[in-house]
Predict the 3D structure of the following.
Amino acid sequence: MKKTIFVILAVAVVGLLGYTMVFLYGKSQDKPVSYDTERPMVTDIIRKTVATGSVLPRKEIEIKPVVSGIINEIYVQPGQEVKVGDLLARVKVIPDMVTLNNAENRLERAKIALDNAKIDFERNKKLYEGEVISYANFQPFDLARRNAQAEFDGAQDALQIIKEGVSSKNKAAANTLIRSTIKGMVLDVPVEVGNSVIEVNNFNEGTTIASIADMSDLIFEGQVDESEVGKIKEGMELILTIGAIENEEFKAILEYISPKGLEENGAIQFEIKAAVDLRDNQFIRAGYSANANVVLDRRDQVLAVNEGLVQYEGDSVTFVEVRTGDQTFEKRRVELGLSDGIIVEILSGVSEDDELKKWNRPIVQK
């Protein structure tokens, strides 16, 4: 019985030792390595640099009053389209007391002069009609009466303008009526009924009644770093992406590059401007922030591969590894074209049907 147990234990030990040897031998062997492959693709390659900025109307006009006073009525609101001459608001004039007093005094003096001229005119008219005096003697009194009447009418209109901002002769062209000077969209009406406004003059910028812009003529205004500005020139194409408008791109043409850079956040930036090309169904709100990809060069529908598949020997030799069998590859020289930093154009060396080794991503089989 003891002998049987001993034999069983001996066999178990030998079996365990044999399994251990086989396991260790298997562990010591190199694992087979399998490489993934990738085919070349036909795609567009665009080499670009990025500028940040915003989209603005090329022409935005601030409408300001030519008389001071209080906003009496407002006829437009932001987003409304207007034409040249459309009425925007009406201003009620609050006259200056000194100016008002002077105008009233002028009118009173004009009335006195007119009354006196009328008396002289009537007296000498009777003498002329009675053939007591000649027409040459009567004419100065007639002229004096008409001059006095004109002065009275002028003083009356001047007083009305000071009080109301408009005379009886020119109500349609009243300074109190604020009208649009351009065709476009009302972007902002920063005043409300009851607000005081100041006229625009040589000493004051005046109060803005409304901002109006042509929203069909937009420009991108942005900045380019000094390291990139030497790569761009007027006439280049820009591709705009706007954060507020997803899944849509806008084209623009570079029109202006500032000759002078300005320091901003420790770096020199150059201002650029580009005309935005809007299609009929596209609309951009003024002030949207945008990124502009300045197209430095591009190739459309060319054969390309990921740059990670390309290997280099020296300064000028480039090659890829093309699959020839089951996990067998051969080196093949390729001629490269334009690169955007991620994919690179293949001018010659491989075709669209070749399978290229991802040499830097081997898969170790377990």
Remarks:
- Residues 1-30 form one domain.
- The chain has three domains: 1-30, 35-58+215-366, 60-213.
